[in-house]
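User: I've been trying to design a sequence by hand for this structure and keep getting stuck. Would you show me what you'd pick, starting by listing the structure so we're on the same page?

Assistant: Good idea, let's start from the same input. This is the structure you sent:
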């Protein structure tokens, strides 16, 4: 989530509304070589294995022409993911055929198996595992000799030196890696659109990159350029969110105060939304294809279709859609979801702040649908709100246009009470998960209402196992909100992964199922509680809110979760699922209203949210640095209704109290604050198999006196690999002690991989299927400037060295590659 420089009043809505009671290659020489017979009739051979540039040879004492071995029979090992070369050498004679074959260990793909020099990448393993390979050489007279090479593969390690803290205005990565700036604010996605001037005078952002790059997915693209190819690591579609704007830099002299000019408001609106762009890699270099027919911008003005139980509901009816089945656009899109059937989920987070609601609206609603006042208050849209960026103050050149008026949710008593003549119901059209087919630029995105309405941060699927109903995990990003999962009614059918009508597959898995909310117990167990009308008090007689039907439960997901007594969390943000174990991780960024003891609107510490403290120089009390919680489903199935949990890691500066704050024992190589972005490497490459790499990104304001925001790589263990810890919170004149559950100290399995430029957020990450290119978004660099003529960052221009002090910063997507061509991080 962004921290926004508010030039024309911006906020996220009423954010606290929950009032409910509840080792490098050159260092690794690994080989084990067996004796072998030489070929008769003057042909002699030997076998070797090469790891990271070091060559060891096997010998044949009976063949005087063979190379003498220097390490015959030695024990060899290599870490998973490293390149291995097998070399056969012929001392004399003539060879007719050569064949390398694997005789033991996890299967690998041999390159050049019919040549003397073959290669492969060491496979992922959970424990040390032996591999063996046989070299069969046939002489021209048909005589055969066999030789064997064996080696031991060990689990992956984080093979880089941790990046130190940095306040520099560049993206810093470890030695041996390179950064390429790929796609920046304003970059044109049509050949007819001119290059970005970056002076505040650019227009037509419906065909340019938007601002505040955020959640992101890469989809492999076939050689024909028309269909998905899950194995393509050189051509693909990159789909990314544009969460918000740094308003100051979009206009020549900054924004004009209200009433806002139409041209400025159009630019700001179009800078929100989603980009779909084609990207290619040629000669090792990544570029985006400006003229691709698949390029697309989805903005707050793009037509949307509602799908699922809320489609056509009375609360979705507006002057734009009298039958409540259609809407316009998506906004404040934060994290994402990559579906197994090649669609992209974008999620509407802090949408509430964009709406104007003037005094007197509550009275009008009381006379028609009084419970809407309860709903609007719970979602942070109180009376007196003017709406972000003042878009409703625009007088459009086309008097019939409702592009700006739609952001005024005030009910007009003189107009139809059903909402079809104004936009009193427009807020109910937001807060949803939106599905996009990136391969069909003419498709209409669908808002998946069965997944509930909230400040959706992201939506990630659990493991997709044939015959098992899949789950989709979500966080509601606001203080004291909840963690959810949706379990589809339909068991997964693997053939759907290659379906041509991808949105129809989305209908199949995302429109029918059960939405659950999480309750975390102090003993390390938890329950998924169903949000189903007619169960657990979710009915018309409920005193908190009288629910009318299941659509009402989904529109008012927060209120339903309140009734069930879900656990209030410290701002649930990104979710990620370990592809090897199925365990779900969720970042809890921070919580300023978490106090040692509950009082009024303040929430007290509990087992799952055990810290409240002061982190100087700030004097604020709360969970300042955040933590990452994880759950293991009962029987490791997505269909489970119970789970166990612990905290993977607590954010903290290395210098903070190790007893009650720096509970994970972080040091200068891995201390962090306010975890936000979260993602596991893909199971299509070794970094996502057996013991996958997890990536953590920060959106911080508490540690930025020490370092800019960052990205870390981790190899986490499993739920329960640590123990319990008694934690005492003493601040603000109160004290409380709770027992929490914490994973083992991460140590060297957690390292800082990247530090961003000034005043940025690191957010959004994905990779090519082979794991050799990692895409990362840098959001709102230089956001704290007070005038566009004196920017506080010059990135990405500063990435190449010196840059003019007046160059405006731009949010951008970067690509990180390993200089030796290997899998990133390992």
């Amino acid at each position: 989530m962004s921290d926004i420089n508010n030039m024309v009043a911006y906020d996220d809505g009423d954010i606290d509304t929950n009032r409910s009671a509840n080792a490098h290659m050159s260092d690794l020489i690994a080989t084990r070589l067996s004796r072998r017979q030489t070929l008769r009739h003057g042909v002699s051979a030997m076998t070797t294995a090469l790891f990271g540039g070091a060559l060891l040879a096997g010998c044949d004492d009976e063949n005087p022409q063979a190379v003498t071995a220097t390490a015959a029979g030695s024990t060899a090992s290599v870490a998973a993911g490293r390149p291995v070369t097998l070399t056969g050498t012929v001392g004399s004679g003539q060879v007719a055929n050569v064949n390398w074959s694997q005789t033991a260990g996890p299967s690998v793909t041999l390159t050049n198996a019919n040549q003397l020099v073959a290669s492969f990448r060491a496979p992922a393993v959970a424990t040390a595992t032996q591999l063996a390979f046989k070299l069969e050489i046939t002489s021209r007279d048909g005589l055969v000799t066999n030789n064997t090479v064996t080696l031991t593969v060990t689990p992956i390690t984080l093979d880089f030196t941790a990046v130190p803290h940095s306040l520099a205005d560049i993206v810093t990565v470890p030695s041996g890696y390179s950064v390429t700036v790929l796609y920046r604010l304003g970059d044109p996605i049509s050949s007819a659109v001119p290059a970005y001037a970056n002076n505040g005078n650019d227009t037509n952002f419906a065909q340019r990159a938007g601002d505040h790059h955020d959640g992101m997915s890469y989809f492999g693209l076939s050689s024909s350029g028309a269909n998905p190819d899950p194995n393509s690591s050189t051509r693909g579609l990159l789909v990314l969110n544009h969460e918000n704007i740094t308003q100051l830099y979009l206009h020549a002299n900054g924004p004009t105060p209200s009433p806002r000019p139409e041209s400025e408001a159009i630019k700001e609106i179009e800078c929100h939304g989603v980009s779909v762009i084609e990207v290619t890699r040629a000669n090792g270099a990544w570029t985006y294809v400006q003229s691709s027919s698949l390029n697309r911008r989805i903005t707050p003005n793009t037509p949307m279709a509602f799908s699922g139980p809320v489609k056509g509901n009375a609360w979705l009816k507006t002057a734009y859609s009298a039958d409540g089945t259609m809407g316009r656009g998506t906004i404040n899109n934060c994290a994402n979801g990559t579906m197994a059937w090649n669609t992209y989920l974008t999620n509407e987070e802090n949408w509430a702040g964009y709406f104007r609601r003037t005094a007197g609206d509550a009275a009008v609603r009381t006379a028609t649908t009084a419970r809407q006042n309860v709903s609007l208050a719970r979602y942070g849209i109180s009376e007196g709100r003017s709406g972000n960026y003042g878009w409703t103050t625009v007088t459009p050149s086309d008097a019939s246009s409702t592009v700006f008026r739609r952001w005024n949710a005030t009910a007009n008593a003189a107009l139809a009470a059903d909402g079809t003549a104004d936009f009193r119901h427009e807020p109910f059209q937001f807060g949803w998960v939106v599905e996009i087919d990136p391969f069909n630029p003419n498709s209409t995105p669908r808002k998946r209402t069965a997944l509930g309405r909230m400040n959706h941060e992201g939506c990630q699927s659990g493991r997709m196992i044939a015959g098992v109903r899949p789950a989709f995990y979500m966080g509601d990003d606001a203080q004291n909100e909840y963690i959810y999962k949706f379990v589809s009614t339909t068991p997964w059918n693997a053939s759907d992964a290659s379906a041509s009508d991808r949105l129809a597959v989305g209908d199949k898995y995302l429109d029918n199922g059960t939405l659950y909310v999480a309750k975390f117990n102090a003993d390390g167990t938890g329950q998924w509680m169903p949000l189903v009308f007619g169960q657990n008090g979710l009915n018309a007689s409920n005193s908190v809110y009288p629910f009318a039907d299941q659509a009402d439960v989904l529109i008012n997901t927060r209120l339903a979760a309140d009734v069930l007594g879900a656990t209030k969390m410290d701002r649930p943000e990104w979710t990620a699922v370990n592809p090897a174990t199925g365990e779900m991780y969720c970042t809890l960024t921070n919580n300023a209203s978490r106090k040692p003891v509950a009082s009024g609107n303040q929430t007290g510490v509990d087992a799952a949210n055990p810290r409240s403290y002061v982190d100087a120089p700030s004097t604020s009390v709360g969970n300042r640095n955040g933590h990452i919680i994880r759950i293991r489903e009962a029987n490791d199935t997505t269909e489970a209704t119970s789970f166990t949990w612990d905290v993977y890691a607590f954010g903290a500066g290395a210098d903070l109290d190790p007893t009650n704050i720096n509970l994970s024992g972080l040091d200068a190589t891995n201390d962090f604050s306010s975890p936000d972005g979260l993602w596991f490497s893909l199971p299509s490459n070794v970094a996502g198999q057996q013991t996958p790499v997890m990536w953590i990104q920060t959106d911080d304001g508490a540690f930025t006196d020490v370092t800019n925001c960052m990205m870390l790589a981790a190899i986490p263990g499993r739920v329960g690999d640590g123990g319990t810890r008694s934690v005492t919170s003493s601040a603000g004149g109160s004290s409380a002690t709770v027992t929490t559950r914490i994973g083992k100290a991460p140590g060297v399995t957690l390292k800082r991989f990247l530090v961003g430029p000034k005043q940025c957020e690191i957010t959004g990450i994905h990779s090519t299927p082979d794991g050799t290119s990692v895409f990362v978004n840098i959001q709102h660099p230089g956001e704290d400037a007070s005038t566009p003529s004196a920017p506080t960052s010059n990135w990405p221009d500063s990435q190449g060295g010196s840059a003019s002090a007046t160059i405006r910063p731009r949010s951008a997507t970067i690509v990180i590659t390993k200089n030796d061509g290997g899998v990133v991080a390992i």
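That's my pick for every position. To get oriented when you compare it with your attempt: The helical segments are 247-250, 262-270, 361-366, 371-378, 502-510, 550-555, 557-564. Confidence is low (pLDDT under 50) at residues 1-8, 23-75.
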